[in-house]
Amino acid sequence: MTDREILSRVDHTLLQATATWDQIKALCDEALRYGVASVCIPPSYVAPVRAEYGGEPAICTVVGFPLGYCAATAKAFEAERALEDGALEVDMVINIGGVKNGDFAAALDEVKAVKKACGEKILKVIVETCYLSEDEKARLCGVVTEAGADFIKTSTGFGTAGATLADIALFRKHVGPGVRIKAAGGIKTRGDLEAFIAAGAARIGTSSAVKLLAGGAAGGY
Would you state the pLDDT for residue 214? Predict the structure, then answer.
């Protein structure tokens, strides 16, 4: 797999609380230069990036992030606002505590509500696998599929652990045919990138890929 092919699957990410406008602009400039799938940025930067850059790079943002325990109505409103501001993709965090309580019906209602707010735009559902049992992960694959979301995503990158190849295999076994997989958290080497893509991840959320691959990608453009 070429560097360019890998980067085309990357959501180039900067979600730290201290992220500055200069850092966000640098992220967007790299995204344009190296052809990543999107920039994944805090909601407060969506409108400024849209105003500065127009329709490219594609903007992804997060809702209910990173803990997931705000109200479903708040997440739906966040999604609506982000799309109005210019986002094309939304990564939402489920109510992890609700899942640990076994309330999968509420999880389904929540994802449906946010997907309704997103409409035709892409919704990725972060399930934060590091906190879940195998059964909970499998059941959430069903929730994400039934709710009509576009992706199931492993992690926020702010939990106790990130993506694992075992979780990608579990997702592939249990999600419906229309649901793609995003791996995020702890993916820091070219070997990681290739392994997760080979395992079935259609997207990779990382801040490291451009730095790792920029030289080869630049040479291939």
Answer: 77
